[in-house]
């Protein structure tokens, strides 16, 4: 049986995972676009952490874009 994290523990784990990524980055399949981790949209499902990325729109707003595990996202990040 696994122990469920508290909401505070989940928030801290999401923030820690997000801190391992640059403030802004590119993604392999989207040359020329800028992304960041969207901490407020990221979540746990059971014990699996899902990080949402946000894409910088042409008007400067950040829009939630796609989700991935931290490992999957790390493999797609470009400078």
Describe the protein's architecture and organization:
- By secondary structure, the protein is an alpha+beta fold.
- It has one domain (7-78).
- The chain has 2 helices and 5 strands; from the N terminus they run αββββαβ.
- The strands form 2 sheets. A 3-stranded antiparallel β-sheet has the order 2-3-4. The protein has a two-stranded antiparallel sheet with strand order 1-5.
- Strand 3 and strand 4 form a beta hairpin.
- The longest helix is centred in the N-terminal third of the chain and has 13 residues, at 7-19.
- The N and C termini lie far apart (40 Å).
- 11% of the residues are buried.
Write a brief structural summary.
With 79 residues, this protein is of the alpha+beta class.
Record the SSE blueprint:
Elements (H helix, E strand, L loop, with lengths): L6 H13 L6 E2 L7 E11 L2 E9 L5 E7 L1 H7 E2 L1
Antiparallel strand pairs: 1-5, 2-3, 3-4
Q: What amount of the residues lies in strands?
A: 35-45%
Number of E-state strands: 5
Count of helical stretches: 2
* Main beta sheet strand tally, sense and closure: 3 strands, antiparallel
Structural class: alpha+beta
Descriptors for this entry?
single chain, 79 residues, alpha+beta, 3-stranded antiparallel β-sheet, two-stranded antiparallel ribbon, 2 helices, 5 strands, elongated
């Amino acid at each position: 049986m696994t122990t469920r994290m508290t909401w505070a523990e989940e928030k801290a784990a999401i923030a820690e995972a997000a801190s391992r990524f640059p403030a802004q980055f590119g993604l392999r399949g989207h040359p020329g676009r800028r992304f960041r981790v969207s901490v407020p949209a990221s979540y746990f499902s059971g014990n699996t952490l899902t990080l949402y990325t946000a894409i910088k729109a042409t008007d400067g707003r950040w829009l939630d874009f796609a989700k991935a595990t931290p490992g999957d996202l790390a493999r797609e990040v470009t400078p």
